[in-house]
# Entry
Amino acid sequence: MDYFNGARSQFNALFPVDDNLQVESIARLLTGTPDVKDGVRGWRLRAIELNKDQLADRPVEEWSPIEMAPNEMILFEMAMRRGGLKTDDDLLLEAAAKHDVSITDLAARLVEDRIFSCRPEGYASSIGLPIHQAITPDGRHWLSTNSDLLSLWIREKYRRSDENG
# Structure
């Protein structure tokens, strides 16, 4: 079953695309830790009970794409053409030194922002989803794996700034 279309395929449901930039926070209601008891491996589960008010008080954040500095974008573009960021790639190391970018720091940031994933030691590459890039009218560079949210964010952010002068 296709991960992204699994619910639609299995239950014949079509979920609407979210039309706002609010990212709801997740309330953790169950935690688990691996455990061994009498030689049998399993999970020790603990339920977390929150009342309706506690669930309603969860903070909501505004979604935004990942901003990249122009010198980071140069390395990102090179990495995409070369199959990822490799800390032992001489061409990438030379470019990183020229543009004052740490490959290790850039890779960690792209992994943290869920654009890249870690591979073997010293290597990070795309998570497999399309990566969309945008340069906004103010010359800033942005990355996202969600083109719908990226388009909505640009419309919302730059419409507001156009309206304010």
In short: Helices lie at 6-11, 52-56, 70-82, 90-98, 103-112, 147-163. The mean pLDDT is 83. Strands lie at 22-24, 30-37, 40-47, 60-62, 66-68, 85-86, 116-118, 123-126, 132-135, 141-144.
